[in-house]
Amino acid sequence: MVAGWFTGEGEHFRLVGTRCSACGSVFFPREDAFCRNPECEGGELTATPLSGRGRVWSYTDTRYRPPSPYVTNPELPWEPYALVAVELEAERIVVLGQAAAGVTVGDLRVGMEVEVVPGVLYKDAETTWPTWNWRPTGVTA
């Protein structure tokens, strides 16, 4: 995973975006070079933790192994997972991510509240690739 995209642990785990000081726009993944808002002349970009909860905007399941740079063992059978687009109301953005382990498309509904939690994209003998997941609120791991 890209360094600086998330921070904290447990209930303090947060995605880290960028906020433009000129227009207030928030971006994720973070932007360190310029404001992505085409109507903004640009301002200082500062790292900002994003809301820990949002609402499901859309969701689907994966039925095929994504291409590189997705990290996976091609010798193991593919296991589908739920992919969730979550609207963060305060930031006025939608962030895509995998659903937490055990959460399927049957567990998700548009508009339901979810929270961001730490996850593992892939793990082998030498390395663990951390990521973020979305989990319905009130569900424990």
Written overview of the protein:
0% of the residues lie in helices and 42% in strands. It is mainly β. The radius of gyration is 16 Å and the shape is globular. The protein has strands at residues 6-7, 14-20, 26-27, 45-49, 53-61, 82-88, 93-99, 113-123, 128-136. The chain is built from no helices and nine strands. The two termini are 22 Å apart. The mean pLDDT is 91. The strands form two sheets. Strands 5-6-7-9-8 form a five-stranded mixed barrel. Strands 1, 2, 3 and 4 form a four-stranded antiparallel β-sheet that branches.
Sheet bearing the most strands, described? 5 strands, mixed, barrel
Return the structural class.
mainly beta
The fraction of residues in strands falls at: 35-45%
Low-confidence segments, given as residue ranges, are none
Number of strands: 9
Percent helix: under 10%
In whole angstroms, the N-to-C terminal distance is 22 Å
Largest beta sheet: strand ordering: 5-6-7-9-8
Question: Count of helices?
Answer: 0
Mean pLDDT: 91
Backbone shape: globular
Gyration radius, to the nearest Å?
16 Å
Order of helices and strands: EEEEEEEEE
